[in-house]
Structures are given as C-alpha cells and as structure tokens.
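[job 0412] stage=fold_complex status=start
inputs:
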Amino acid sequence: MAENIRDIYHLFNPDAVLLNDDLEKYYVEIDQNEINIKDLQIRLELGLETKETIKLLFTGHRGSGKTTTLNRLVSNLDDQFFIVHYNVFDLLDQNDVNYTDVLFSILTKMLEKAEMKEIDLGKTLLKRVNNWGNSIIESITQEKGVGGGIGLKIPFSLLEIMGRMKSENTTRSEVRKEIEPRVSELISIINDTISEIEKTGEQVLIIIDNLEKIDSDKALHLFYHHATQLTQPLCKIIYTFPISLKSSDNFMQIKINFSDVFIHPNIKIHEREGPEHPYPKGREFMKEIVSKRVSPDMFEPDALEYIIDMSGGVVREFIRIIRDSAVRAITRKKDLIDKDIAVEVVNGLKNIYQAQLSDEDYKVLMEVHQTKDIKRDEQLVGLLHNLSVLEYRNERSWCDLNPIVRAILDEKNLLHK
Amino acid sequence: MELTSDHLSKLDEMMTLLSISDDLTIAFVCCNEPVLCHALDNEIRKRLGNEIFIYDIRMNTDSTNLIQILQDVIQLDLYNTQKKENKKIAFFVFGLDDAIEKKNQEGKSEALVQLNMMREEFLNINHTIILWINSASLYMILKEAQDFFSWRTTVFEFELERKEQVNMVADFGDTDLQFLDKKELEERWNYYTGFLKEYQEKGIKDDSKFADWNYNLGVIKLLTGYAYQALKYFEESLGFSKKIGDKIGTANSLGSLGNVYIYIGQVDKAIECYENALVISREMRDRCNEGNLLGNLGLAYINLGEVEKAIEYHKKALAISREIGDLRGEGADLGNIGRAYRNLGQVEKAIEYHEKALVIAREIGDYRGEETDLGNLGVAYSYLGQVEKAIKYCEKALVISREIGNLRGEGNWLGSLGLAYSDLGQVEKAIEYYKKALVILREIGDQRNEVVWIGNLGNAYNRQGQVEKAIEYYERALVILKEIDDKWGEGNVLGNLGSAYRNQGQLEKAIEYYEQALLIGKEIKDQRIINFCEENLNSIRS
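[job 0412] stage=fold_complex status=done
writing structure:
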C-alpha cells in the first residue's frame, strides 16, 4: 500500500491494463459489471453445449474498463475454450484496418496458438495454408515464395506478410488487392483450421481487443459493409466495437448480423435525475479503486469526491485525473492531493474537451442535458466517440454530459435556458 | 454455310410473296446470325435471277430516315432505268439494327419515330420493302413503331438450326472451390467427407460445420456436373442452416439449390429459390450475395426466353458488383450480359462484353471465368460466321476445362466445336465431336446439356440424309426432355420428328407429330412452334 505521493504516480497509470497478479490485487467488483460479465460468460458456456458460432459485439466507452473485463473473462474461461485473445494493433496498423486484415489476423493468431498447444493441423491443411501464403508473397514481392515446406507448423510466409502489413502501406494495399477477390479462400482456410482444432474437443473462442479504437469511418466499413465476412468463421468471436456506432443510422442493420451486443457501462455516480441525486454504490466503487492502491488519507476528502464527480464514472479518466493531480502535488511540494490541485487539473482538461466541440455539437449537448435520451443521431456518434457524452445503464440506457463538458456549457451559460 | 430444309421452305414463301405482290408490301426478315443472313440473301438473289430487280438500301446511324432514302432513290437513274424496262423492283433494307441505335432527345430511336410518323408516305412506294433485322430490333419496333409494324404482311423468322449449351454460367457464389482443378477438388472432397466421418465417429454434433461441409460437397458435385447428387448435399446443408437459424447459410444453400434446378431444367423452382434467397440477403444486407442472386435470376429468365428481363437483372447485378468492388462478380455479370445480347442477335455487342469479362477473369486468375468467356467468344464468333476464330476460342476453353476438371465445360465445348465443324460443312467431324460430348455429359448425369447435343446429333444425321438415324436420336432426346419436363424442347423435337417423317414420305406419322408439337406450342404459348406446325400441317393436308 502506497504511503507516498510518488507511489500514486506509479500506481495510477491510465495506460496500464490489469493483468495476472495485478488483476487479483486491484480488481474491484461492481454489481452492474459483474452481472454483465456473468451474462457474457454464461452465453459463451451455453454455446459450448449447442456449438453455436456466436459472434458478439463488446462495447463501452474508452477507459471504462473493457480490456480489464475481457482479461477477466479469459482467465475464467481459459480451461473451457481454445482461446485466441489478442490486441488487434499488435498485428495491424491503428490507422488502417479493413475486413481482410482482421480475418487474416484471426488466421495467423489461431495458427500461432495451435502451434503453441502442439495441435496437429494435418498435412492437407498446412499445405493449403502454405500455398496460399506463398502465392501472396510471390505476387507482392515478385519473388518465389519462401517455401518452408510442410515441416514448418505455421507457414513462415504468413508471419512475414503480417509483419510487413503492419509497417508498410504499399504491402498492405497489395496484400488486400490479392486477398479481396478471393476472400472465400481465406475464409475456407480459417474454417478448416477451426474444424481441425475442434476435432480435439476444444471449441475456439476468438477475442479481438481494441478494434473499437479504429476511427468511425473505418469501423463503419468493417462492421456495416463487411459484417457478412466477419461472421463467417465457424467459431465464437468477440469483436470489440466502438460505442459511438450504436447511435449510427446503420446500427440496427449491424445488429442483425451479430448474435448479441454487450455494453460495458460506465460507473454510474449519480442518477439520471442529475448530480444532486448521487448513486452511493458507484461512488463507493470509485473509492475502492483508490483504497486498493493507496491510503485514502492521501486525499483531502472533498478532493476525492470532486475527482469522482468530474470523472463521470469513466475509470481511466478517474485514474488520469488522480495521476495528474499527483504530479501537480509533487511540483507544489504538497504531500497530499487537495481540492485546489484537483480543480486545476480538471480546468486543464476542459481546454482539451472544448477544443473538440463544434457549434453544432453545442446544440446536441444542450439537448442531451435536457432529455438524457440516447437516440439515433449521427451527430451523437462523434460526441460519444470523444467522450463528451457518456452512456449509463439502469434498466434502460441513458446518457449525460461528461461532467467536464457540463462545466464548459455551464461557464458559457448554456445550461439554464 | 448450308441452308436447312426449314430455311428453304421459308425462302419459298418469301419468293411467293415477292412474285405476287405488285404494290406496297412491307415484310421483315428476322435473323440473329449474320452468317445466316448472308446465306439467305445469296440464295434469294440466286433464285430470283433476272426476274426481280433488288434495290439494296443501307441504313446506319448517319442515315436513319428510311422514307427519305426511298424518296431520294426514286429520283435516281438506276431506279428509273429499271422502271422503264418494266422490271419488277423490290427494296432490301439493311442496317436498321445500327440505325435504330441513334436516339433523339427523348431517348427514343430516331429511325423508328420517323418510320412510325411517316407511315402514310410509304403508300407512294409501290414496291415490296423487305427489312432485314435482328430480334432486338424487332422488339424495339414492337415498342416504338407499332403503327408502322401493323402494316406489315409477314415476319420471316430464320434461326440457325443449332442449339448450343444452355446457360452454364450460373454463379457459384462466394466459394474458393471454383478456383480448384480436378485433382484439388477430389482432395477437398476427401477432406470434407473425412471431417464428416471423423466428427460422426467422435460423436461431435456440430450443425454449423455440418452445414458448411455439406455445402462444400454440394458445390464440388455441381462443379463437376453431378447436379442430382449436388441437390442432395445442398438440401442437407439447408436443413442444418435452418435448424441453427443461420440466415446467411440458408440464403447460400437456397441460391445453390436454385443453380441445381437450372441445370436440371426446373427453372420455375430455381426462380423460387433465388427469390427466397434474395429476400434473406437483402434483410442481412449481404450485397455480394444479392448481386450473385440477381445475376442468377437473369440466367433463369434467359432460360425462359425473357431476354429483356434477363438483361435488366444482369445490369442490376453488375451495378452491385461494381459498387462493392467484386471483380469476379463483375466479370460474371459482364459475361452474362454478353450472352443475353447474343440471344437478341446483337452479336458484336455480345463480343465486346465477353472481351471485357475475359480481361477481368485473367487479371484475378479466375480460370473458370476465363474458360466461360473464351467459350462464349467462340460461340459468338460462330454466329458471325467467323468459324475459324470460333474454333480457336472453343479449343482454348476446352484446354482450360480439362485442366480444372470441369467436365460439364469440357462436354459443352466439345459440342460447340462440333457445331463449328458442321458450319464448315464437315459433318462427319461434327458427329464425332457431338459423340465425345455425349459420353462426358452422360457420365456426369447432366441430362439438360446431354439432350442439346443429342438433338444436334439428330440434325447432323438428318443433313447427311440418314433420316432413320436422325429419328432415333430425336426419339432419345424426347425421352429425356419428358423426364426433365422441358416443354419447349419437347415441342421443338416433336416438330423435328414431324419434318423427318415428312421427308421420308410417312405423312400420317408426320401429322401425328406435328399435332403433338402444336398442342405443346399452344400450351406454352410459343408462337414460333405453333406457326411452324400449322404451316406444315396445312401444306400436307392441301
């Protein structure tokens, strides 16, 4: 347990994801989330019996704790499934992802895992994978393929292509040009690989994280225009999905193609009626995140309450404000975080949020403030995407302004008209 | 090329018309194959000798006003010299097919608007006018120049006495199997049957995989031409997909079932499958499959003879393929549009489309597409009378079909080669090719295509004067046509049988067959069959 303000800096890292020991040590359960994970887990476990090829969309605000939840899910299910769990940006370029890339990454990661688990995929299939990989290499390099023969378990060519695709734009577009007209070939290889793996009795579950971070246009292209391809692998897949697309006109259509949509909610810190109606359970949860790491004495009580208010219940924002406050406290040679410091940090964040907003946005924001309704609205897509508007759940979903954005509107006297 | 007895008897009628008419008489010769038009024209001139002076008129996109052209001609010396000599004059008008293409501002054909409006002016032309057109133009005239058309006496329709393969370009949808050769297909066949067996032995019940494997097995059977076996696998796959509520899978299976029904000649059933699949694909917003299905519906309508409707469907499919960047689909759609234009007699336009499709197929390494495009080019060139070119293309298609183990393709290109040699007058060689084609098609149980080449074999023997042998083959075709319930084919073969017996002097038998054919013609409302039978029956009885 941290006793020193410097430790706060190290223990509150918004970029770090809880894994392994830390997951045990720092993970805080909260009812609404626990029910959610349980639902997801039960859905998948039932799928074991029926052998359904479930395709789930998993979504939530940036920083709401999706990755942590997925990590928890993997550790709960690891002995029941053949799990292939990866961060899509380990393989692909964040700024440019399309459906063939995603399918390609599924194949590569699945082969990697099969090799790790020493599953024999059979000569016939490996030969096909190899020929396929080589034909792509040949066409993009104009050289004879690397061969590699049947002895190699994961055809080397695939790894090479994957590596190049991440770093080289031209390779990426050439590979796509090669795969797209014959995407059926890739899908057939994926499906036959799944069948080979599942012969062992284990069922394949693929979890692709961080896919929700690609920009809205690319995401629309992926989930709307190519849903049919994404759902073709005959196994269970969890795709992370940008919450902003939920307000897109095309969401209903997207939903038809997938089995279910799971929303990882933000922590509700007050009720729909407004900040005057706090939600104690949520606030307790936020405090627990702190108390698992440091002694709450490191904060002046009103400072912590203020930070909880301004985080809007987004865990990562919460952690970020605390970390920034620690930095500022150290600079000011203070040994605890007081409200003045927290207010300064939040004021700094205001500038960042304000810079994202356009005139049209203000109209939508005022409406959200009035109605708290989530509805289909292309304007709202962007605001959900940049966290200006946050979604919460009771029985029904509702949304509210990010408290920092609310403060911006308040300063502009836009709230009480 | 040689003209058949059918052609010759129609020519007799044309001769009669030319010799008895002594006032304005408007008639059409409708013929889709330039090579046949040419042969007919030669034959008429030969027969007329000096009896009638034929004045050739050529229209084109720069010269679209027929009445104006005729009025100008009447002023010319050539015309007046003939007239003074008291020669009978007839106008043969060529090139209306081209002239029709020029559209006015409202998008109507200039040539046809003028024909229709200036109808009265034709009364001053006191001669027979015969317009040589293809069936696309005939369709346009019916649409845009009805008043003019109503003045005609006769439409003489000539068809090459040939049937080539039914449309075999049905889209197999999005499956990698269509890129494989015979050996690879066999390997896959063993692979998927192996999976099925292994999962069954281990007691793993996995419906989505069973659906997938059965589907693949069906595609392999269809690709190698065993349509009835494919039917079984697709039905199995459909059952699994429905059971697990997999809509995309259901649509795919329905679409493939539709393809099977086309192959076995049950077009109505095929259309039903396609339409059902289309509803699902639209609901799921599966654009790629939507495009495939629209294309396949087009093929179905071509099979029903509704070519204009077919082109509409193919163009819709093409738009989708382009929108989603599906090159393979684009190639298939272009090829299909080409096929449709050829059916309408617009052979050059057809060739343009096939060339475009060929470029795409080669670009993406789609051998099956390449094979189809080459074969289609071959058939198209044979319609233009460029038989050597036709043979070259069909042989190229044949080579690819053997490489990739496409038995259906191999059979049909062999047959097409037979037709080409028959055009060259090498009937023996043609018979040889037809027989080779039949062996293959019989092996894969593709009755739909088998019957086409049996019919052609009958025609070939007929041409050689071996009427009994011809009758034997027609009878065999008849059995198959009844089995696959192809009324149109049945009507045609019955008609052929009638003519064969008539040639042998067995008039009672001839009447019997013509009457049976007439009955079917009336049942399916096919005017061509009805006219053919009535004319023959009348001439026998008188």
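[job 0412] summary: The beta strands of chain B are 25-31, 52-58, 88-94, 128-133, 152-158.
[job 0412] exit 0
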